[in-house]
Structures are given as structure tokens and as C-alpha cells.
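User: Second chain of the day. Same drill as before.
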Amino acid sequence: MKKEDQRAPDGGRENRRPERYLPVLMAAVAAVLAAGMMAVAAAISPPYRYLVGGALGACLVGLCVFLAWDWWRYREQNKQYIEEITDLNLRFGILADAVSAVSSTLDLKELVENILGVMLALTNSSIGVVLVPDEEGKHLQVLSHRGFREEAVQGLKIPVGRGAVGRAFLTGRMAIRDNLPQDPRAAETYSEGRSPRSQVIMPLKAKGQVVGLAVTATCEEHEYKPEEVSLLNSLGHELAVAMINVELYKKSQKTLEWLADTQEYTEHFIQEMLAGVLVVNAEGDVIYFNREASEMLGLQAKEVLGINYRDMVKEREKFRSLSYLQPILRLCMEEGRIFRHHELVIEGPGGRRMTLNFNAFPLHRAKGEMMGAAVVFMDVTEVKEMERRLRQQDHLSILGQMAAKIAHEVKNPLFAIIGLADELEEEEEDPEKKRLLAMIRREAALSNQWISGMLTFSRSSFPAAEGISVRLHEEVPSLIADFLRSSGREDVAVVPELPEGLPPVMLTRDNLRHVLFNLLENAFHAMPEGGTVTVRARDTGNGFVQMTVEDTGCGIPADILPSIFDPFFTTKEGGTGLGLSIVQKILLDSGGAIDVRSRQDGGTVFTLKLPTRGVSNGYQA
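Assistant: Same format as last time:
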């Protein structure tokens, strides 16, 4: 058909004469014959005139009949060409509809419905269905249909390999069925209530796999032409390709969603980690800086993201705390070094000394290509301080045991010396000797004071096991009043700021008295010209009450501040150096802690961390 449309003019000239020339030609030939007959009639006498005239007349009639038949044949051929061109236009329109259906949507069901409509239009059919295998691949189920009642196809499952439809899916071969028997359930199955007579079962096959079946049927006998079958095959192939592409698109969308979710989970996980995380890409630019790192180093993420690690230098004051990580990142990026459980001391925000425990490692893609480096770090300053305090507590415990032993061995002879000195002083009349005996008694008494302090240091106990506790807002004001009465100082004011509702703390009243009296005595000593001491307390909400004792005195020199809790260290004349050591031991034994901040001529603040017994706000004893 296509070759006939493109036939050369010279090869079919007898079939290509213009229709409008035939009447003119016939008139010209008739005129010539008529003129010949007239000339013969005038020039020839009978009987030859009649013979020649009859012959010419027969030629004229024969020529007219031939020309009329040829004209009719040409008209019929033109009709056939017109029908063929119309059919081609229809098929091209169907193909255009198919292309539009494939390209217009990515919804599988809508796509299949569009192509099924094109197939039905091509075969002039009113019944069609597209079947696809289930997840197990053992049955075919309806994806889209036309001409069926909904209840007839709902839940329909056709076993693969059984029946004409099941076998066509299994073999991947098209089946054309004519003269189908009447279906007794046609009224219940088909929308028009008529049984199909012709049917095409077409596997949807592409890329070596059968992804489904398309079945079209007509209620009249229909002879499927080769070109129809070829076009159906093309449509089936395009539909199969489109179905595969839609499925691939869905899988790619799911993969993208999974990747997006994974990235979101990863970012959320990194942000909420209890460790600081800093990640740089292959160029060395920071791409991750989580919340913990921001809080730990005092930098906002927006200030750090995009900064190259090479620019993290101490000269840039803003990135001073990050400058300590710069050489670590350089070793990871340039030498592929890995750091596990290393420690680093840095200068944090506000000049605070911080100890970081960190892991650092380069990041590689699956093929080994460098993609960056990461540093994961934790602030272990408090842990280190706790370890130091535990070591100090062990040291104090051992020292307390030694003090108890020494005190036990020395106290009795010391009392004997004091007693003998008293007796000798009463009997002695020589002033010089009395002075010496008084000196012996005074020095022995001072030694006894030291021994008493050592005994107190060794006897401080942990009261939690005894179930003992005190309420600060009830006990502290009365203890302050007792201290003020015994001190005799009127130029120093002690101001308690203790809110009600504080949970009880795990201390005995005697231990609280010893701690508070010692701290107040130190505060009074630091304010020889008077001042104010403020005692505050607040519930931290994490199982501790924080109590502070703040004075307005002369402060503690920076060079001796680290030593004030050491046993026997004192700057007071006649002091034992055990007061603050005993305070610290009491608090450590109870599970608490003590810290100090002081500035020369700017006052001193002792901060006590007291463990609570019970809960905050509304605790019922």
C-alpha cells in the first residue's frame, strides 16, 4: 500500500490520466470520426460508402465504449486510493493518540486506560481489558477494562498458564480467536449484554519480559488484517515500554524519597547527638556543624558552615576555639590519619579551659575516592574534674585514716604533757620557768587543736545510708543566727536568700553546720573592715541543690587559689589548714561537690553542689 502511494509517474501513466481530460479527448475523437464519415460519404459512392461509414461508426462506438470503461475504472481506482489514504490517516491518528497517551501521564492506571481506548478504536471493538501479574506472579489480575460490568471483573484472578489468556502470558505469543461460542453469562459479564465473537489476546512484551496482557474483542465477526495486527503489536510494545518506565519511575521516586528520608534522619541524628560533630567535604569546606558543637564552642552553625578548615586559625578570634581542630582535619585530609579516643585541651568560649575527647577520620566513597573528613568530639572537662575529685577523695580518705591513727597515738601523750605542764606551773615560782611552762602548755594546746581537726577530718561520714536529710530554708537561717552570736562582729551582714519548696539535701545538721560555719568564718576573715555575705540556694532540677556563699571581701590570690582545699594549707596565723579540706570531704562523702571563684579585691564565691533526697517543687517528706 505504501509502495503504491509512492509509485513513479512513468510506471503507472495509464492509471494516472487526469479525469478532466477524458471528456475533451472523447469529443475530439468523435469529431474526427464524424468528419471522416462525412468525407467518406461525400467522396465514395454506394455500396462502399456504407461499408466504410459502418466501419468508421463501429470504430467510433468501440472507442467511446473503451473510453467510458477506462473512465469508470479510473474513478473506482481513485475511490480505493481515497479509502486507503483515509485508512492511513486514521492509523496515523491512532498512533498519535497512542504517543499522546504514553507521554501525557505517569500514572499507570491512567496510562493503561488511554492505550486501551486507542486499541479499541483501532480494532473497532467495544470490549477490552488489560491484565497484569500479581506480586507472586501466579495469577493475572485486572488493571483496566472497558465493556465489562464492574462486579464481573472485581477480584478476578486468572491462573498463569491456564486457558487461552494464561497461556498467552506464559508463552508471550499473540492469539487471534474467531467464531467464539456464545457465553451463557454474557448478560452478567458484559455491559451491552452481548457475547464477543472475535478476540485478540496480545502479550505486552518489551525488553525481553512480558509485563501483562491486552485483550480486545468485538461482538461481530471481524477479520483482522495484517496491518491491524502489526499496529496492535506496536501499540502493545509501546504500552509495555511505558508500563516498565512508569514502574521504574515509581521505584526511582521511592529511592529518592528514601534517600531524602535517610538524609533527613542522618541530619536529625547528627543534630541531636550528645557529641559535637564537624564534617568537611572534599574541598575542605564545613558542611555539618551540629547543635552540640555550636553550644560547646560558642559558635553559630551559620557562622561556620562554608568555612574552609584551612581558615580556622588562632589569628581569627571568632574561630579561635576551632583552630585547635585545624591540624587534626589537615592530617585526616592530607595524610588519611585516623584518631580514636584522643584528648585535646583547648581554650573555649570566654577563655575557659576545656578538655575534648575526640575521634577524627577521613571519609571515602565506595570506590575509595576522598569525600571529606569528620571530627566527633565531647567536652570531658567535668569528667576529668570528677576524676580528679575522686582521686582527691581517695587521697583524703587515706589521709583521714592516717590522721586518725596519728591522733590516736599522739593525743594521750599530748594530754599528759599539758597536764604535767599545768602541775609544774602551779608549783614553780621562778618566773622564767613559769613562762617556759606556759609556752609548753600553749604549744601543746595548739597541737591538740591540730589533733582535734585531724580527728574531725577522719570522722566525717556519708549520711545517705542513714536516711538523714535537712531542709536548707529551715536550717540555714538558724545556723546563721548562731554563728553571728558567736562571732561578735556587727560590721558584717549575712543575708540568706533561700526560697521555700527546696527539696531536702542529704546532709546531717551537724555536717551542714560545720560546712556553713567554716565558710562564714573564712568570709569574715576576708572582710576585716566589714561587708556583706549572701547565702543563696536554688534547685537545679537534676537531683542537686546549688548553694552559694558569696562575700565582698579581699578575694583569694590567683596563685594560692588551687591549693585552698589541700590539707594543712593555710594563710591564717594559728590556723590548722584543715577547715576547707574537711568541708570538701564532707561534701564529697555525701555525693556532692564544692567549687570556688575569686578575684583579687573582688570577693569570693563558694558554690556547693548538694545532692537532694526527693523531688523538686512539692516534695512530701
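The CA atoms of residues 303 and 564 lie 41 Å apart.

User: Great, on to the next one.
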